[in-house]
Specification:
Length: 229
């Protein structure tokens, strides 16, 4: 690796994104501290190993994305641009994470027209919210059909605090984050959630959130901040 590429990589590594570079054989030649923090692998563990072996990334359909004949590198070899993409992988400790990856094609060395420099960031929380939104949309549609058939239940009234908890759940907050925001024990919020589910006659947080969005809680035209300062 020549000095100019190394200097560029060091500059990129000062940011929050994970950074790694590979050679013509897909072997990792650079691994930043942020990359280690995001995925848990130390530089010593990954240098010289094929990137597809370390990441084992898959796309949203579960199909293998990271492989020896990498579609990204193939596009770079053909002189084509590569758009940012999402992959699911696992940290060293086995925890699943979603990454958004961007490619910076550096025009030099390693037997390639461009040295593929990968920048990636953890988007696991965003993906979780997207999945929740999909579930809520499906449940809203299902509940609307039920209402049209005259089978909608009449829920028991919620307390003001239960409304607050439900609203925050609908905004994508995890119960543990809500507990921290209110300054109460986690079990307190979890008990609130259980009472909400029971009163609404639903079986999951997703169904409760769907109920919230269908009713809109009378908040049309305003967005109250319910999380304590």
């Amino acid at each position: 690796m020549d000095a100019s590429l190394r200097n560029l990589l060091r500059a990129l590594a000062r940011g929050a994104d994970g950074v790694f570079a590979v050679d013509a054989e897909y072997r990792i030649t650079f691994w930043s501290e942020a990359a280690e923090a995001i995925l848990g692998y130390s530089r010593q563990e990954v240098l010289g190993r094929p990137c597809y072996e370390v990441l084992q990334g898959r796309d949203g359909e579960g199909a293998v994305w990271c492989q020896q004949n990498c579609p990204v590198v193939c596009r770079l070899r053909a002189g084509k641009a590569v758009a940012p993409y999402d992959i699911q992988t696992r940290r060293r400790d086995g925890r699943a994470v979603w990454l958004n990856v961007s490619i910076v094609p550096v025009p030099q060395g390693s037997g390639l027209p461009y040295t593929p420099v990968h920048l990636f960031r953890d988007i696991t929380a965003r993906k979780a919210k997207e999945r929740l939104a999909d579930q809520v949309r499906a449940l809203v549609a299902q509940a609307s059909e039920t209402e049209q058939e005259g089978e909608a239940p009449s829920p028991a009234p919620l307390t003001p605090r239960e409304w607050q908890v439900l609203s925050l759940l609908a905004q994508g907050y995890h119960p543990d984050a809500i507990a921290k925001g209110f300054g109460v024990a986690r079990v307190t919020v979890r008990n609130h959630v259980q009472r909400i589910l029971s009163k609404l006659g639903v079986h999951s947080r997703s169904e409760a959130i769907a109920w919230f969005y269908r009713r809109r809680l009378g908040f049309a035209g305003r967005s109250p901040s319910l999380l304590p300062p």
